[in-house]
Amino acid sequence: MIDRFSQPLKSVLVAVTSLLRWSGVPVRKQFVVAAWIHKCWVILWRTPTRRLRTLPDVLVIGVSKAGTSTIAAYLAQHPDFHPPLYKEPHYFDLHPQENVEWYRAQFPLRMHRWLAKKAFKRPFVSGDFTPSYYLLPHAPERTRRELGSPKIILSLRNPIDRAYSHYKDSRSIGYEIMDRFQDALKAEPTRLRGELEKMEKDPNYCSKALLSFGYKTRGIYIRYIQHWRRWYPDSDMLILNFDEWIKQPDDAYAKICDFLGIRRWALGRYAAYNVNEHAFPEIPSDVRRELAAFFEPHNQALYEYLKTDFCWQ
Fold first, then answer.
1. Closest by CA position to 133, among listed 206, 242, 235
2. Contact at 8 Å (CB) between 118 and 72?
3. For the chain, how far is it from start to end, CA to CA, in angstroms?
4. How many CB atoms lie within 10 A of CB 44?
5. How do strand 237-241 and strand 58-62 relate by DSSP bridges?
């Protein structure tokens, strides 16, 4: 009864995307092929067994380009953690037409949980690592309603560095067409005009423009954290500082394990995952100064709200 099908799927995805990459197929088309394979796998195996499956115990809701892929990779190596079929199910943002039974199909079988807890007396934790959830106005209420009381993990990063990493990622994938970061920043207000208001009004609307081009907007953390805190108490939320935990990943990993109630597990090697390897110049000093001035009041509000100074420069 233990679900043995996730690992073969990952192997197939890795093999196919590697072949496509070797053949010179653009990254965006690689994503399309991988998504199609994933969809077929869900239809053939996961959908028929969805009612027999569990829901996630933890949501890693963000932020993008702040180590969520690394957290997912670290937890995937823990014997008490059981990954979803796909790292980012995107249930609460990109699949408004689906219901919670579709979401269940992404996670392990309940029998697996029962065996771990009853037969082997071990903790059993599964999770969803979709870093755009923290942006969604209706997500906190909906996650409470549909999932009960999942744990929430949010990894923050200096918003200037996060914005530039976001730009590099969008540029590498092909979403961003502007050659200069400063030009993309200037275009952001026009690109995102009215998008936040649409998301507020329509629970099923997720702004793809915000996901792709919200370089500054997605770095105003205080706006989103306050909203999540209305639905989740401090005890259910773990907020990490990416700029600190990359220096001491073993300490951060231990903190995550304690928060999830699983055994501390030393990995030995703490590699970074999903690092953009394309060559880009450093942020121009004048652009960095402008961004520092823009984020300074928002960062100060965040420090006061969390009673923690992240010392972002």
1. 206
2. no
3. 51
4. 10
5. unpaired
Q: What is the DSSP string of 131-158?
A: TTGGG-TTHHHHHHHHHSS-EEEEEE--
Q: What is the token pair recorded at 297?
A: 């009041």
| Strands in the chain per DSSP E | 58-62, 127-128, 151-156, 237-241
Closest CA to 170 of 190, 153, 191: 191
Q: What percent of the chain has pLDDT over 70?
A: 94
Please tell me which residue, 68 or 274, carries the higher pLDDT value: 68
Give the count of beta carbons closer than 10 Å to the beta carbon of residue 28.
10
pLDDT digits (tens, 9 = 90+) for 14-26: 787 788 788 888 8
Residue-range domain boundaries for the chain: 1-52, 54-306
Q: How far is CA 217 from CA 27, 99, 160, 212, in A?
A: 25, 29, 11, 11
Sequence-separated (6 or more) residues with CB below 8 Å from residue 141: 231
Q: How many CA atoms lie within 13 A of 167 on its CB side?
A: 26
Total-model pTM: 0.86
pLDDT tier for residue 8 given thresholds of 50, 70 and 90 = low
**Interatomic CA distance for residues 294 and 255, integer angstroms:** 32
CATH topology of domain 54-306: Rossmann fold (3.40.50)
Read off the DSSP letter of residue 58: E
> What is the C-alpha separation between 124 and 116, in angstroms, rounded?
6
| Burial class for 8, CB neighbours closer than 10 Å (0-12, 13-18, 19+) | exposed
pLDDT tens digits along 181-221: 999 999 999 999 999 999 999 999 999 999 999 999 999 99
